[in-house]
Specification:
With 313 residues, this protein is mainly alpha-helical. 47% of the residues lie in helices and 4% in strands. The protein has 3 domains: 3-92, Orthogonal Bundle (434 Repressor (Amino-terminal Domain)); 113-220, no CATH class; 238-310, no CATH class. The strands form 2 sheets. The chain has a two-stranded antiparallel sheet with strand order 1-2. Strands 3-4 form a two-stranded antiparallel ribbon. The N and C termini lie far apart (65 Å).
């Protein structure tokens, strides 16, 4: 038998086994002492299908069943979220649509204390936990500092990384922001196509397009890409975009996240500094060293007449 045939047989067997297991744990509408669990006739009646149609579905013989049909069977058999997801994948080949809950409505997802502790331990590295729409569920202090307070202006449920990428704050921070926007929109389009029935995704797309013409133009391109696991961006100062920019203070730009970024940018093979401390030795107690450096740093620009800082890069 061909490999493709083996895969199809396994798919049908898994689908049949899942439905039979879910039927077996439910009590019949009319008790029957000879056996337990729902019969195919009972499941078909609860799902609003004919017995013949349900039997064909349970055998995996219906090609490309409608999501509504799969949902009706999942609801009839009182499937868990995991079972519902598996049923959609086995029956249709893709994930089920997300529940139609707009952003900000409904309960906020709970994050395990284990993950919250892991998130906190990422300091001074910016780190966030998001849902499938890139809406932030939890973040550490470094992420708040990196975003420059932009996230704090929005209520929970609306702090979205895609929308942040189209903000003025982010544009001032990233030198290749337009390339990053194109990548994230292609990834969002991929997720949107997989969850086109979700009101949450529809609401996010509407908010995205309201940010301006660049977002609308990128969305209308219909470029689709699987979201990357990592995003590589470069941070720049304001002067990169405005050669006439003049700085009178720099200290407010120095924080743990930027000191960490500066350390990460140094080659591990670089020669030791004047204090003979190597890159590896400094990194053994990185957080404490950076906090000590932040306390000791003192950047001041004296208000000398006729002297201005310009053209920094």
């Amino acid at each position: 038998m061909a490999v493709a045939g083996n895969a199809e047989w396994r798919r049908r067997a898994e689908l049949t086994g899942l439905l039979q297991a879910c039927r077996s744990r439910m009590a019949r509408p009319v008790p029957d002492g000879n056996s337990t669990g729902l019969r195919q006739e009972d499941a078909a009646d609860l799902a609003g299908l004919s017995v013949r149609r349900y039997a064909a579905f349970e055998r995996g013989e219906i090609a490309s069943p409608l999501p509504e049909m799969v949902e009706s069977v999942a609801s009839a058999l009182r499937m868990t979220m995991a079972e519902r997801s598996a049923l959609h994948i086995l029956a249709t080949g893709h994930d089920p649509p997300l529940p139609p809950v707009p952003p900000g409505d409904g309960a906020r997802p709970e994050v395990s204390p284990v993950f919250l502790e892991l998130l906190a331990r990422q300091d001074p590295n910016p780190a966030v936990i998001t849902d499938e729409t890139w809406t932030i569920i939890a973040r550490n202090e470094a992420a708040s500092a990196w975003a420059g307070g932009w996230l704090d202006q929005l209520p929970h449920g609306q702090q979205n990384l895609v929308l942040y990428l189209f903000s003025d704050d982010c544009e001032a921070l990233l030198s290749d922001v337009h390339a990053a926007r194109r990548v994230i929109i292609a990834g969002l389009r991929y997720q949107y196509a997989r969850n086109v029935a979700s009101d949450r995704f529809a609401a996010l797309v509407a908010r995205l397009q309201a940010t301006g013409p660049e977002a609308r133009e990128l969305w209308d391109r219909h470029e689709i890409a699987i979201p990357p696991r990592e995003y590589h961006v470069r941070c720049v100062t304001r002067v990169r975009k405005d050669k006439g920019a003049r700085f009178t203070a720099l200290l407010h730009h120095v924080d743990l996240s930027r000191l960490w970024a500066a350390y990460a940018a140094i080659s591990p093979k670089a020669a030791p500094g004047v204090d003979q401390v190597t890159w590896a030795a400094y990194g053994q107690n990185l957080r404490a060293n950076l906090e000590d450096l932040l306390r000791r740093v003192d950047v001041r620009i004296m208000p000398l007449r006729g002297i201005q800082l310009t053209g920094l890069s």
